[in-house]
Design goal:
By secondary structure, this protein is α+β, with helices and mostly antiparallel strands. 47% of the residues lie in helices and 29% in strands. The protein has a 5-stranded antiparallel sheet. A 3-stranded antiparallel sheet has the order 6-7-8, covered by helices on one side. The termini are far apart.
Length: 202
């Protein structure tokens, strides 16, 4: 059991170091592909929690029944608080556990949502481009209010166009953005939509 506790402690520390090192070097401009950052974070949290439990079990062998009961009750309470905090911190500080939407016409791009507000009633969308094992931020698109259904992302590099289709309040909307995140509006939006529609028919 002691060997298992040592191994889990080493694994947890290693995963935390890798996770924190990546985020310190990425400067918050990217995420690991395929939810690898979330896997690192969750595995570090879980292995660390289990390792602490094993060390407590080893120490508790020397204590009387009352001391063991108090120790395990405190551990249970602290673990619940820690796990809750880890999820909240992962979602807010590290911006993990948010939805990701793949681009339909170009698999190098994807869109990621980040919820805000005390009731998570609105959220921002950001476009990312995949380069190797990292998804780099291209631009922030816009703020949207719930309900927001079935978003579809299309990216057209040659036309400098990011097309987002989504449902809201039983209606279908289409927003078009430059690669700097600014919206096309009016006749410019119509022209871009016509251009990408014609390019799709070729």
């Amino acid at each position: 059991m002691k060997k298992t506790a040592v191994i889990l402690t080493i694994v947890s520390v290693f995963l935390w170091v890798v996770f924190l090192l990546f985020y310190s070097l990425s400067c918050w401009d990217g995420f690991l592909t395929c939810h690898l950052d979330e896997c690192l974070y969750l595995t570090a949290v879980v292995t660390g929690t289990i390792a602490v439990a094993l060390w407590l079990l080893l120490l508790a062998r020397r204590w009387n029944r009352k001391s063991k009961t108090v120790a395990w009750c405190l551990y249970g309470i602290i673990s619940v608080i820690w796990l809750f905090y880890a999820i909240v911190a992962g979602r807010s500080q590290w911006q993990l556990f948010e939805k990701r939407y793949k681009c339909i016409n170009d698999n190098r791009y994807l869109m990621r949502s980040c919820y805000h507000g005390w009731d998570n009633s609105y959220f921002g969308l950001s476009l990312y481009q995949r380069e190797g094992i990292i998804d780099y931020t291209v631009c922030d698109l816009d703020w949207y209010y719930l309900p927001f259904d079935n978003p579809q992302l299309f990216v057209y590099e040659d036309a400098d166009a990011i097309v987002l289709r989504y449902g809201m309040k039983d209606s279908i909307y289409t927003d078009v953005f430059h690669f700097n995140g600014k919206s096309y509006i009016g006749s410019a939006k119509d022209s871009v939509l016509m251009a990408v529609k014609l390019s799709g028919k070729k």
